[in-house]
Amino acid sequence: MQGDGDVTVGRVCNIIERRCQLPRLVGWSRHYRQSWNEVLQTPMEVAVDDGTGPKNYSFEEFFKLWLYSGTFHSDDELEAKIKAMPGLASEVLMMLTQRRLPGVLEILRLIGEVIRIWLDDPSTPVEEPPSP
């Protein structure tokens, strides 16, 4: 989910992993990036007819539709795709997306904590990250 100038989790983690001199924080950055990618690639729990037939959306696909179809930004093509979904399809996907948002936001918070420790308090004791 990125354009040329977009700030993304992958780009933020790249900066941490290239510039941070604290191996444990680099390890946590890698762990949280992997967690982020796993959440995004997780299929939604239902197949939804998007107007072209049933489709199993990944969380990333619908999260992108939700973000860029008028919720935070407007992309006419994505907005039209949401509006073309028959019946309650878009509402069901919205509900499933919202159900996953706390976990997504927690990963972002944890990446922010890595940055805070790295830049503001590098003497903070940090546990070893889980093995990949």
Provide a descriptive summary of the structure in words.
The structure is a single chain. With 132 residues, the protein is mainly α. The chain has one domain. It contains five helices and two strands, in the order ααββααα. It has a two-stranded antiparallel sheet with strand order 1-2. A hairpin with a 4-residue loop joins strand 1 and strand 2. The longest helix has 32 residues.
What number of domains?
1
The Cα radius of gyration reads 18 Å
Shape: elongated
Main sheet: which strands, in order across? 1-2
Class inferred from helices and paired strands: mainly alpha
Terminal Cα span = 24 Å
List how many beta strands DSSP finds.
2
| Mean pLDDT figure | 86
The stretches of 5 or more residues where confidence is low (pLDDT under 50) are none
The portion of residues forming beta strands comes to: 5-15%
The major β-sheet equals: 2 strands, antiparallel
How do the strands and helices of this protein lay out in sequence?
Elements: H1 9-19, H2 23-41, E1 43-49, E2 54-58, H3 59-68, H4 76-84, H5 89-120
Antiparallel strand pairs: 1-2
